[in-house]
Amino acid sequence: MNVGKDLVAASATPLVLAILSEGESYGYAIIKRVDELSAGELQWTDGMLYPVLHRLERNGFVKAHWGRSESGRRRKYYRLTDLGSEELSNQRRQWRIVNAALRGTPFQSFELVPQVI
Amino acid sequence: MLEERISEWRSYVRRRQAIHAVDVDELEDHLRTQVAELGEAGLDDDEAFLIAVKRIGDLDTLSREFAREYSERLWKRLVVEPDAGKDAGRWKTEGLLAVALAVAAAVAIKLPALFGVSLEGPEGLNLFYARNFSLFVLPFLAGFFAWKRALAPAGRWWLAAPFVVAALVMNAFPFTEGGYTELLAVLHLPLALWLVLGFAYAGGRWREHDQRMNYVRFSGEWFIYYALIAFGGGVLMAFTLFIFQAIGLDAESFVQLWLMPCGVVGAVIVAAWLVEAKQSVIENMAPVLTMLFTPLFTLLLLAFLGTMAWTGSGIDIEREVLIGFDLMLVLVVGLLLYSISARDPQAEPGFFDALQFVLVVCALLVDALALWAIAARITEFGFSPNRVAALGENIILMVNLAWSAVLYAKFLGRRVAFGPLERWQTSYLPVYLVWMCVVVVVFPLVFGFQ
Q: What is the mean pLDDT of residues B95-101?
């Protein structure tokens, strides 16, 4: 099922921050985790993750360092900073607000009546 | 096979200016992990590579996202630092060497002062300095390139020889002071040595057309950088004079005897190093300027021809007017050369090519008219060294432009590709060198050092 571009973009930051709160990680692993979490529904274009990560680093939410992969190749690892944790709580609050609003409507239940035009 | 594809992909991504080398490293790691994983799932290398590249996503969108993130990268800054992955050690050595050579050149130019040779002569610049100026700075630049391109020892001897010969000629020849042959030699020697420098720049591979064209591009950029540095230097000197005057000290002798000569020679090396450092990071300015001035120049020549035809007036030949027309030819050849240096050889002939054809033809017409007017009076004027030199240069440039016009016509008519045009220009470079050497060495002998 195709999730709208805007929604994918909006959910990118909280998802990445939340995944990094589970522990330090790198780009490829983050994408795999997203795939896992969404049961394959959220299909991110792999390359697009990296500008997001760089933006988060620029804002101070994550910190990157170069390490080595198992095969010995250079790999960039990211971890969440304190500022990032704060931002994550911030994002969580925002999503809760939206979620609560939607729960009050038929959106959340299964009794959505299709509009008869 | 996979390695080839990955490095091809790397260079393709690298071309996007918003994506720096470090980012490419990161993306490459992602690509390789993906390929490895797909390989484990049973796909062969080719399939895994294709899928992995597709998953990374469309490059245009990706570079747009990167550009949005790193908007300052779109102003191609000269970051004089090694890219992660480049040999950082060699980079530093190169920078230090450039600075050291610049200092050495500055010291060299002041060295004669120790032996009582002053910078000022009876009429401006001391003749010793005028004759040997290029020998104070170009050998250092030659050394820089010899090191950078790892010139073979045999090549180094070949490189040193012209400088030694030049030193001998300029100092041993009994020039008449203030004579024409001396003036011509002084003007043509730096140009000759600059072309010799091309040998070092090309790492000894002076026969290859690509290397020659690269040297042309380097020369154009060097000139622009030097002009900018010189302008900055001028501002610095003016400011030095002003600020020391404010506390009652006259800094004029310091500025004239130290700051200026050292700056002039040091900047030669620094500008060369900067051009080498920037490489493809920053757009070449010379072709941009060429694109601006070609239409203007073409219009000027068309207007001139039109006016001549309209008013029916001939070219009024004063004694030394040929030099002006030489200058015109030099400018046109320069415009031609630099737009050729930046043109995509695969591109179809277009409006700009037609414009250049018009420029070349106009220049040839104007020059033909000038030569015809002069020919009628050449016996009246006689053959002095500078007149012969001007005539020789005129003919050399005219031959270049004439054949270029023919090739352009064929190119526009699609009977020939762009390659021959480029190769004609690069093949012609040795002709300039030979001519310069003739002016420096043969003219004094023929004209009795007058």
A: 90
Residue ranges of domains in chain A:
5-97
pLDDT by residue (tens digit) across B182-209?
888 888 999 999 999 998 898 888 888 8
pLDDT at residue number B424: 92
Summarised one tens digit per residue, pLDDT across range B148-189 is 888 888 888 888 899 999 988 888 888 877 778 888 888 899
**Shortest CA gap B92–chain A (Å):** 22
Confidence of residue B85 (pLDDT cuts 50, 70, 90): very low
Cβ-in-10-Å burial (0-12, 13-18, 19+) of A19 comes to buried
Of the partner residues B27, B32, B58, the one whose CB lies closest to the CB of residue A50: B27
Nearest-CB residue to A28 (from B30, B62, B69): B30
How far apart are alpha carbons B216 and B202 in whole angstroms? 11
Contact A75 B29 (CB under 8 A): yes
- pLDDT above 70 (res B12): yes
| Chain B touched by A27 (CB under 8 Å) | yes
Pairing of strands A62-68, B124-125: unpaired
Chain B contact present for A5, CB below 8 A = no
Q: Which long-range contacts (CB under 8 A, 24 or more apart) does A64-73 make?
A: A69/A26, A69/B29, A69/B33, A71/B36, A73/B29, A73/B32
Q: Do B25 and A51 touch (CB under 8 A)?
A: no
A51-59: average pLDDT:
87
Q: What angle do CA B309, B314, B317 make, to 5 degrees?
A: 150
**Locus of tokens 């320069």:** B334
Q: How sure is the predictor about B138, in pLDDT bands with cuts at 50, 70 and 90?
A: very high
Minimal C-alpha gap between A47 and chain B (Å): 4
Q: What is the pLDDT of residues B226-267, one digit of tens each?
A: 999 999 999 999 998 889 888 888 878 888 888 888 899 999
CATH number for region A5-97: 1.10.10.10
Q: CA A8, CA A5: separation in Å to the nearest integer?
A: 5
Q: How many CA atoms lie within 13 A of A72 on its CB side?
A: 0
Q: Which two tokens stand for residue B303?
A: 């207007």
Strand order in the sheet with A25-26: A25-26, A74-80, A62-68
